[in-house]
Amino acid sequence: MRLDPAAAAAGFRLLDQDVLPSTNLEALALARHGDDGRVWVVARRQTAGRGRGGREWVSPPGNLYATLLLLDPAPAEIAPQLAFVAGLAVCDAIVDCARNFANKLALKWPNDVLHDGRKLAGILIESEAAGARLAVATGIGINCERHPERTAFPATDLAEACRSVSPETLFCALSRRMMHRLDQWNRGKGFPLIRGEWLDRAAGLGSEVAVRLAGRELRGAFERLDEAGRLLLRLPEGTLKTIAAGDVFPVARGAPLNSSLDQKGQAD
Predict the structure, then answer these.
(1) Which residues of 223-250 are buried (b: 16+ CB within 10 A; e: fewer)?
(2) CATH code for the domain defined by 5-200
(3) Can you give the pLDDT at residue 193?
(4) N or C: which end of the chain has fewer CB within 10 A?
């Protein structure tokens, strides 16, 4: 792996490992031991990769597993905006490496990148106190050569989508594009620009979606994001529901829209 020269010149560093339990865990451990951040932790394989909610992230060789550690990138309450920053950077990097992908990439709220409706990449933001500072790990997994089967949301990889891109090539582009997107974000001051560009690629915007929450499911129209990046869902009775976290799935055309379902699909 190597950093793009522009990223290296800007002070970003690289820790390149063959195998790690988790690039996020390694990055946060670096922060606990006094690392100042602006370091990418990259592994060719993870043995305990994780997605949102502690779900397993299958991490075979051939894909990209990378985490950017930042110290005090923004106030703690807006640090989760880095998921939107990273999503745009991932799209930018993929388009740099495979320009014919541009029109088929979409962003699924809050932290996935899709190709032609199937999950291509995922992002996991984790943070913790490192002394008096806030350590934020932005973990990015991109399926380059392989993808898991029989997942709740269908997955794909770059090779299957007819363009082979090595993790090394993709990471170099990502390190440059993430740097540019961080500059645009500007510790949250530029989030309106990030939010606008994210919405330009939003999967399901204006369509009926199901949002799975803890113990229940809401269905309605994905109307927009609010100023903090929360999903605004228009329920069938007209109420606008603000959702800070959840898993979004498309709703098949013609499916009934109950405003609140439990996990067995029965009305509350």
Answers:
(1) ebbeeebbbebbbeeeeebebeebbbbb
(2) 3.30.930.10
(3) 97
(4) C
